[in-house]
Design goal:
Order of helices and strands: HHHHHHHH
Helix content: over 70%
Number of strands: 0
Shape: globular
Structural class: mainly alpha
Strand content: under 5%
Largest sheet: none
Radius of gyration: 16 Å
Number of domains: 1
Amino acid sequence: MGLLGLFGRKRHERAGFALYTEAVKAARDPFYYQVLDVPDSMDGRFDMIGLYTFLLIDRVHREEDGKALAQAVFDAMFLDMDHTLRELGVGDITVGRKNKAMWEALNGRRQAYEAPVAAGDVDGLADAIGRNVWRGAPPAGVAHRLATIVLDQHRHLAGQSLESLRKGEVDFLAPVAA
């Protein structure tokens, strides 16, 4: 990375952390864990945070000059994951390996979600979400409900200005019981 790339990342660091923080708040909404039976575990929380982070990164990355901000959101997530692992007592040697595994998991989910989200394909997205969030065994109807919420969030984020996002301002819809 050249020197100019480093300055671009630094410029978006505060906004990246602010956006990521809002994604975590949205992903931790009790609705998901109490109504949709998302597992309230490290894996379930990781999947929901990853889903919301994916939505943010997807939104800003589509902008010609949004790539540095998308990278800042991604970096904020993995700095948080690194910090969390260390707080849980994971040793320095193991943290890197676990972070790599989480990066690979997030990248796999991004690949699984990207096409159905772009196409507005609720059934395809529900299949991908069911495989990831509930490890292939979602309770009846909940993967479809979550996929509908994700597509609503995607449309809602598309209407938010890049300028607001660059300031670290994002508005997520509250999940609604159907």
